[in-house]
Amino acid sequence: MSVLVVGSVAFDDIETPAGRVKGVLGGAACYFAVAASYFGAVRAVGVVGSDFPDEHLDFLGERGIDTRGIYRAAGSTFRWGGRYHESLDDRDTLFTDLGVFDGFNPDLPEAYQDSEYVFLANIHPSLQLRVLEQVSAPRFIAMDTMNFWIEGTRPELEQTLARVDGLVINDQEARQLTGEHNLVRVAALIRDMGPRIVIIKRGEHGALLFEGEGVFAAPAFPLREVQDPTGAGDSFAGGFIGALAREEELDGGALRRAVIYGSVLASFCVERFSLDRFRELSGPEIEERFARFRALSTF
Amino acid sequence: MSVLVVGSVAFDDIETPAGRVKGVLGGAACYFAVAASYFGAVRAVGVVGSDFPDEHLDFLGERGIDTRGIYRAAGSTFRWGGRYHESLDDRDTLFTDLGVFDGFNPDLPEAYQDSEYVFLANIHPSLQLRVLEQVSAPRFIAMDTMNFWIEGTRPELEQTLARVDGLVINDQEARQLTGEHNLVRVAALIRDMGPRIVIIKRGEHGALLFEGEGVFAAPAFPLREVQDPTGAGDSFAGGFIGALAREEELDGGALRRAVIYGSVLASFCVERFSLDRFRELSGPEIEERFARFRALSTF
Predict the structure, then answer these.
(1) pLDDT by residue (tens digit) across B75-126?
(2) Cα(B111)–Cα(A152) distance, integer angstroms
(3) What is the count of residue pairs from A and B with beta carbons less than 8 Å apart?
(4) Chain A residue with minimal CA distance to B251?
């Protein structure tokens, strides 16, 4: 298998009811890549500034992630600051300093061009499309997007959506994309735009998978404490694509198992700030929580 | 089996994005009793005014519900008006005219006193306690409550909570009751107050059952159209208690199945205004949707 992710690498300042951290490793590409790395090799594409310490790249490398596609540009690494409300459902963005991410130009190393599983994290839809033009024979392409692109770059977004197999998106943005509230109708409208598979992430309420004629409702894992929801969605996508890439057939059963693995990785992600939980997370812990998801939803 | 419910019988004015209705049959006791009636005999206790037409009592009677405990008092039947927001998650109460419900005094007919399964719908906790004093050998007692009693009659509420086996409550009110946000901790705090079983209803996000050492996450059924969420929570409770009363043992498996039957009944309830969906709902449809819940959550 060969999983490719293209997206942000960032420094985050985060405030939650559990505490605050400054300048910690973040970014969609990092969360995705680390989560997916538990299932096999991952290739990452991103950009960092001259201020980005090697230790972060070393951490990704130790997780078996190919970081040749993360290039260094003159300037500052993307920085984001957010403050979560008591409910953890909602957050305020305190600042966004794009830095070198503003000029991000995803050129794939030649060795990446045969990637079979591709995740286009939340970046400009034209850049997402540019990545697709560089992969030779993808088996499964999924993408994320956000309100900013839905509002500002609709035609480009629709072009990209027409080219992917799956959209992994949160409920709020899925509703915004379709102008519809009911999630069954939301998913149908999105599938009319291109993706045959739609996953709607609902934070602490789990995720819904729409594929073929079926709907699958995955619960979120009921945790006694959530320290930091940042990166949960990208960890979900990483677990999902990583697990999917291990499967022989991409049928309904495989997709459902992959959604649960995505939920497992997201549930670990939020237990600590930044990617800290992944620094000590083991494969057996993942399998054990997968089994607990079964216990959680079996009747 | 013998299921008893005590609660409101009402006329509702309801506005939702799907339409509006005036003076339709409503009230927690009605929704509960009709939902539970698909599983066996139900006894209802409530009060109606002189304006309450016999046809409503006839409808309950046709569903096999014993209405001898619904007494008629001089005055007007309880009236409630509500308007739902686009999201259906939220509603504004437009008016509440208690009428004869203000003087509601739940005296159980002698024939009801041996009821084994008891549901105390959302009424003053002292009245809930009064009902418990009249049942001779209950096997399982569950209750609901709301913000009004949590704020205004806390000591009485705690007395009643100490006497029940299960609390069936929505997430917002569960959080208000405990002053805690995280639902795992919320459930633990509620169980410290008495109930060994806690069910937290989350509307379109399903329900969480806490029992023994286990947690069970039941999805909500993804419907293409919801006309009217009124009564969903009481229909859930009716399906839950009704199905539970059919079981031999009240173990984890029985509780989980019952939660799914509750979810099934709630999912039918919201398809139409008032209790209209139940006027034509058949037993086989319930079993078919139960099977679809399995397909929805199996991986």
Answers:
(1) 999 999 999 998 888 899 999 999 999 999 999 999 999 999 999 999 999 9
(2) 68
(3) 80
(4) A299
Paired residues of B48 in beta bridges: B72
Contact check, Cβ <8 Å, B296/A216 = yes
User: Per-10-residue mean pLDDT for chain B, 299 residues long?
Assistant: 95 97 98 98 98 98 98 98 91 96 96 98 97 97 97 97 98 97 97 98 96 96 96 98 96 98 98 98 98 97
Q: Would you say B148 and B131 are in contact if contact means Cβ atoms under 8 Å apart?
A: no
Helix (H, G, I), strand (E, B) or coil at A271: coil
Ordered structural domains, chain B, with CATH: 3-297 (3.40.1190.20)
Which residues on neighbouring strands pair with residue A217, listed in sequence order?
A208
Looking up tokens 């909602």, which residue turns up? Answer: A90
Please, which residues 145-184 of chain A have a Cβ atom closer than 8 Å to chain B? 181-184
CA-based Rg of chain B, rounded to a whole angstrom?
A: 18
What number is the ipTM of this complex?
A: 0.94
Q: Which residues pair with B218 in a beta bridge?
A: B207
Q: From chain A, pick out residues whose CB is under 8 angstroms from the CB of B253.
A: 299
- Backbone φ and ψ for A53, nearest 5 degrees, come out as -75, 145
Residue to test with chain A: of B228, B292, B299, most A Cβ within 10 A: B299
Amino acid making up residue A6: V
User: pLDDT-derived band of residue A87, with 50, 70 and 90 as boundaries?
Assistant: confident
